[in-house]
Fold this protein.
Amino acid sequence: MPDVVVETRDLCRSFGGGRRLLGGLKPLVRAVDGVSLRVERGRTLGIVGESGCGKSTLARMLVGLLEPSAGTIILDGKPVDERKRENRLDFHRKVQLVFQDPLSSLNPRKTVRQILEAPLQVLLGMSRAERAARVTELMRLVSLRPEFVDRYPHEFSGGQCQRIGIARALAAEPALIVLDEPVSALDVSIQAQVLRLLKDLQQRLGLTYVFISHDLAVVENICDRIAVMYFGKVVEEGSKADIFRRPAHDYTKLLLASVPVPGRRHSQR
Amino acid sequence: MMGYIVRRLLLTVPVLLGISVIVFLVISLIPGDPATAILGAYATPENVARINAELGLDKPLPVQFLTWLGGVLEGDLGRSYSLNRPVAAEVIDRLVPTLILAGAALTLCTLFGVLGGVVAAVKQYGWQDKLVTLLVLIGISTPSFFLGIVLILWFSVRLEWFPTGGMYALFGDGGLLDLLHHLALPALTLAVVATGVVARLTRANMLEVLRQDYVRTARAKGLREGRVIYKHALKNALVNIIPIIGIQTGFVLSGAVYIESVFQWPGIGRMLVTAISTRDILLVQGGVLVVAACYVLINLLADVLQAALDPRVKV
């Protein structure tokens, strides 16, 4: 029996709907429509699809920023709404999020120390000395020099900011980290560094990732399983090898064929 | 930071000098002269010439200006023709009521402007947002002097809750409660437009900050919504709101000129109106100089506060 960290069952989220002031119907958009997925401990599930297909909405539901319209999210064997009712902070401790834009995800008025200490204080209730030690450990984990902790985010490069974002996500020792396009805003060389760091941390700490991206090369590099989303639905899910070598759905084939590869002419696709 | 403050203070010198030159020129362009205003019915050409010679107004304009400037550098703002007392003493006497009125108006506009803006942003497109937007629109579009008259008519004449004007009751004890009672209507009138501007810009800044990922992160960290809004969103939005409040000081100080006239508030604004009508150049100069200095200093304070709040602002 596989050790499943997170599972979604028929998860839906719609926006809009209802009536206008004069009685006309407002359009209803189903951003996520009946998504069922599962992620095993220590593995990475990639979610790919074009812009607007519902990837980020799914990510926000997984971390509790959006409530599902229907369906269930089961985290470590227990439904999330039940978990939140019992202990809201415990739920937030178990799931953490890393955003696309590394700089905008860090509060510009707080030093790196304050950013990293906040989850330790709020979610783990650590003492000042424990926090200081853990902050140093976190900085080392993401290959940043601990003496930089009293600097502000704007004093770091994009790649360094993303490392701080990852360190913050790791701070509360979560069961699941949802990475929403974590390398899209970075240069290719920095992307490779951050991806290596993520893989390394996964091996060392046994982390579980949900990795959202529209970049198939990145997803191929880091994920074990891949789910392809199209208009809010998962049209195909399988192992990395299956998706890349034997895509079953037409949309997956189209997505793979549309990836630009240096030296490959259009007619060869 | 100290170096920045000193640099900014040094920069105020040319600003104030420029303002003095403009005011001097504008006053001299207005038809009529102080001698005629002082003499009234006795303004024969001989008497006018004698008074002009006594006041030094027969000299060329640049000489008059330099004489005044020399006095200012020695701390002497000259002597008011119409009141026959030193300008500095009159300006200081009138500055305190104006600062009380402007301070109260700024406090009200900051409090209600920021509160309204935050509520409108947090409840974007909700009824609270629509209500704040409507009130802001009404506030910004109503001329202050008209609002003042309406408030006097309603709250002073009809309901008799507040006095119609003045700073203290004629036979009162001159205490704080008496002052607040007299201050309520003029401060409210003066604050309305500025409140609208602050609320609008607070809403826009809060919406900008609320869209940032670090606010989402704060929510994902499990923080309560109130703390997310106050500690993460408002504190960051304040960095851009504080300079707006600094700029509103200018509108409040200039608005004080006619609000003080409507409410007979014994401040520098009303003094300026009287001084202009009696062509009391030195009193106008002194008054404008002090008001301009207040404006520059409050804006400097706003900039320093912004730099202190935002580590990205370099000074």
